[in-house]
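Module 6 notes. Inverse folding takes a fixed backbone as the condition and produces residue identities as the prediction. Think of it as a translation problem where the source language is geometry and the target language is the twenty amino acids. Below is one complete input and output pair. Work through it position by position during the lab.
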């Protein structure tokens, strides 16, 4: 049986609430506990670093992808099982997506939103059927969910756009949704 690979999109900073870091660490440990492979942005800072270090501490296989221009900024984590340096951000997202069976989204910023909306759009366009789970730690993503509702009520998307992802409140719930 092939190992399942879970892509984690998340912030390159810790954010202001310690719950975000705790959730990243818990998700990394759960990925290892369930014998899954972590696929992520290969940074060793912020939530990215936390999820990777927790996965590694629990003997998970790790696959990191980072564009050359972010190697220093995001402190490329070279001690991963697989470490890939890409030419640009577009290639990074593609390599991460192609090497994962499912996608999760922890708190993050514009980059995490970009990654989420790209895989959401691809699902809407029937380019993939990979599960997407938004982990709404302490209601962090409530404004995003409200924006999606606004987009729907204003006629720019069908309500079915929300059928392409599931919402979890904890990493444990996210893993259960992916099993």
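Target side of the pair, the amino acids:
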């Amino acid at each position: 049986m092939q190992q399942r690979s879970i892509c984690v999109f998340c912030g390159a900073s810790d954010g202001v609430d310690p719950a975000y870091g705790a959730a990243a660490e818990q998700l990394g440990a759960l990925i290892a506990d369930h014998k899954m492979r972590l696929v992520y942005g290969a940074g060793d800072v912020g939530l990215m670093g936390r999820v990777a270090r927790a996965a590694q501490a629990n003997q998970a296989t790790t696959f990191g992808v980072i564009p050359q221009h972010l190697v220093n900024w995001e402190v490329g984590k070279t001690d991963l099982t697989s470490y890939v340096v890409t030419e640009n951000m577009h290639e990074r997202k593609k390599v991460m997506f192609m090497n994962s069976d499912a996608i999760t989204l922890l708190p993050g910023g514009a980059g995490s939103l970009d990654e989420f909306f790209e895989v959401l759009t691809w699902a809407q366009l029937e380019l993939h059927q990979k599960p997407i789970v938004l982990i709404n730690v302490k209601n962090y993503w409530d404004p995003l969910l409200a924006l999606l509702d606004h987009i729907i009520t204003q006629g720019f998307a069908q309500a079915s756009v929300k059928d392409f992802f599931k919402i979890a409140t904890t990493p444990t719930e996210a893993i259960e949704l992916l099993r």
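Reference fact for the lab report: The chain has a mean pLDDT of 97.
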